[in-house]
Amino acid sequence: MTHFLDISDLSADDIHNILDRAHVFSTGSYSIKSLSGRSVGLIFEKPSNRTRLSFEVGVQRLGGHAVYIKGEDVQIGDREPISHVSRVMSRYFDLIMYRTTDHDRLVEFSRHASVPVINGLSSRSHPCQAVADALTIRQQFGGFDDVFLTYIGDGNNVCQSLMEISITCGFQMAVVCPSGYQPSNVPDGVVVTEDISTVISKTTVIYTDVWVSMGDEHESTERLAAFSPFQVSEDLMSKARPECIFLHCLPANCGQEVTEDVFESPQSKVFDQAENRMHAQNGIMDWLMKG
């Protein structure tokens, strides 16, 4: 059974196949309904805006039917064992998306599922976001050969999947992050540094995320102090290559990780990136259904 849990689980050919399908969907072409007559379960143990909306609309565009499942209603692993819920849902759905606070729960759920499972976000990774990011970069630059992405911020789940897809797609990447917040599983070839000056002049994509993610609110004071020198500003953007674009996975706190003028600038492609969540996920679902 093929699942979509982590970018590192897939080959380069798989990722490029998904990106090709996503590109077709981004042009508005839905001549083939790969989810026609099929149902998709969408499990949310964590709040969502883009993930829920993009999956619900995307499933409909592929001809399928989406069912929103609130984690607190099902209480997976509490009211019933994860293995039981997974096997029951596999009898109802043709595909399941699971957005969870715990990556181990996702892995266990997928182990018992008899239908494909998609990671809609976990504590470890956010592969759907990474595919949307790669699609946005490919749209902007026509490929990955001359791309150097500098991620500035917390070495979180978004950062992890970005590092993995940088290796898979073949673009260069640096993570600029304060000590204590750097990613732990860094692939060979990805640079990790606290000094932005070492990479900014060759940067073609600047990417950032919130300094305080859901679940980290108790660390707000410490995080704001640690990350304050790492804000993306107009001055920083001016030191990158002239064609540099700005990306953010959203939601954004303008005035913290990025200034308002950068967020609203012509270099900012954050809303193309947000739209591409749907196209990327449709590419993933189409690939899983036809694979």
Number of strands: 9
Rg result: 19 Å
Helix segment tally? 11
Share in β-strands: 5-15%
How much helix, percentage-wise, in residues? Answer: 40-55%
What keywords describe this structure?
alpha/beta, 5-stranded parallel β-sheet, 9 strands, 291 residues, 2 domains, 11 helices, 4-stranded parallel β-sheet
Report on the structure:
The protein has 291 residues and is of the alpha/beta class. It folds into 2 domains: 7-126 and 277-290, Aspartate/ornithine carbamoyltransferase (Rossmann fold), CATH 3.40.50.1370; 129-274, Rossmann fold (3-Layer(aba) Sandwich), CATH 3.40.50. Helices cover 41% and strands 15% of the residues. Strands 7-6-5-8-9 form a 5-stranded parallel β-sheet, with helices on one face. A 4-stranded parallel β-sheet has the order 2-1-3-4, sandwiched between helices. The chain is globular, with a radius of gyration of 19 Å.
Q: What's this entry about, in short?
A:
By secondary structure, the chain is of the alpha/beta class.
Topology, pairings included?
Blueprint lengths: L11 H15 L12 E6 L5 H12 L3 E6 H4 L7 H11 L2 E5 L3 H10 L4 E5 L5 H15 L6 E5 L4 H13 L2 E5 L14 E3 L11 E4 L11 H8 L6 H6 L5 E4 L11 H4 L6 H21 L1
Parallel strand pairs: 1-2, 1-3, 3-4, 5-6, 5-8, 6-7, 8-9
